[in-house]
Structures are given as structure tokens and as C-alpha cells.
Amino acid sequence: MPGDPTTPYPLPPIPYLRLSLVLRALAPARLPPYKGSMLRGAFGHALRRTVCAMGPEQPCESCRLRQACVYPRIFETFIEGAPPPFLRGLSSAPRPYVFEPGDDDRQDFAAGDPLAFDLLLIGQAVDLQAYVLLAVERMARSGLGVARSPFELARAEFRASDGAVHSLFENGRATGPAAPPSFPTRDGLDAERLTIRLLTPLRFKERGHLSTTLDFRSLVLAMVRRTLELAWFHVPGAAIDWTFRPLLDRAATLRSTPNLAWHDWDRYSNRQQRKVTLGGLLGTLHLEGDLTPFAPLLRTAEILHVGKGTTVGLGRIAID
Question: What is the pTM of this model?
Fold first, then answer.
């Protein structure tokens, strides 16, 4: 029942599609060690050039085609109308995508070398996958890195809910139909102990400031916020239960043992035309207690990421 702390919190189903993409270098290239920000920026430029009917001088904020355009629906989502009380105060809506560049931190690529990464599409963005693949093709050809080294899209695949791998693009052409959406896992935590691993820096705010500590209640709140924001803005008609305070109270009763450290990383901001240092928490959070009410939320957060900077792959967690 809603608000019952002994049962799993009823999350709204969120369709998602994980695209596994492989680019191939057409010339020697030097790329940053963490490639999420680079991929996001190059993708955004390519998507706008691909779909914008008004031209680069037209700001999206004042464009009369804004609500019909694919670019803001995917890359720069605006808040249209008044959100519910819990979501008031947001400066912009969460973006319905996540770049996951993986663990390949090499910087030098020879011609022919592959660059593999995943791109997660969330909610209505799943239906726009054809535009996404076209933008990825064009961003690769336009070049990556400071030297704009050319790549090509070599392969695009997705894994269906039955585990089968399907091809969407290979050898220069589309090879499959539109992929059906999957849904976040709802079970798989039959234990009273588990460890949450923070795989990429976790950034979240408490009382207006970035937090340098983490307890389970704070993490649960960040996971709930992320899930409900995506559902509200990107899943039309989503049935959302806003009575999650009992879940937070329950989270505060669990024993949590953090083993965390702050990690800084640098990225280049095209918008600010300078290097920007971002930091976040890495490490583990060990939990003991009745984890049943949190199983759907934890499994969903494994897919959607948590906190700030999720579009470039930050806030990725794994459950052991």
C-alpha cells in the first residue's frame, strides 16, 4: 500500500533502451581519458545541426518550434508548465539520456582503433532513437577531441529483455527495426547485506552544497528524486506516488558503513570555453538490515545513475 515502509516503494515503470555503440578511428586521434563529457558535447552539436529547422542563430528558449523539435526533447529539455510541489525550484528538466564511456581511459588511438561506449535513452527518448543514431553518425564524421579527429560509426546494438543481442547499425547502414523498450528490474535483492559500489563520481547536494559524505537515507532521497523527475518529465501519464517519506525513515534505520573518498576530474566546457574541475565521491557503502523495500529503487538506480552530471556518466552505481 502507498507509504507502507515494509513493502517496496511503487516506482513508475520507465522505458529505457541501452545502445551499445562502437566508433572506428579514421585517423590518429588523441582523446581525453574520461570521454563522457566529450561525447555529450559532440553529440549535442551534431543533433542540433541534424534536426534544427531555424538555424544556429535561433536560441532554443525563444523558438516557436521548441515543443515540436527533437533537439530539446532529447538534449536540452525545458520545463513546460508548473511541475508538482516536490519538483518546484528546478532550473531545467533532467535530460533523458546517459553516456557511459566505460573503463577505457586510453588517450591515443590509431587509425582503425575502436571506441566503444553505451548510450542510454530514457522514456520518450526511446522513440527518437533513429535521430539519435543519425546524430552519432554525424558527430563521428565531424571529429572528436581537440583536433576533431574523424571517426565512423561501425556498429550499434541493443540487448532485448530476453537477453538476445540485436543489431541496429553495421557496415554503414541500418540493419534492424526500431527497438522495443525495456523496463527497470524490479527484484533481485534477496539479502540482508549488500555493498553499493560508486563506479563514477557521485555528486549530490544537501542544503544547497555538494555533499562530501554519504549515508543511506541521503542516497535513497537522491535515487527517488532522479527516478521521479525522469518519470514526470519523460514518461507521459506516469503514475507517481509522492508519499515516499516512510521509505526515507526506513532507510535511516539501516546500518550503513561508508568507505569513500573524494575524487576530482577535469573536463573542457565548450559553453564556458575553459577547463572545469568536477569532483564526487568514489568507493563503497555497505548496508545491513531489511533491504526488501529498497530492491526496486536500487536496481533502477543501477540503470539510471544518481545525482548530478548523470548525462556524462557520473553517479553510476553497482549492487554487490
Answer: 0.91
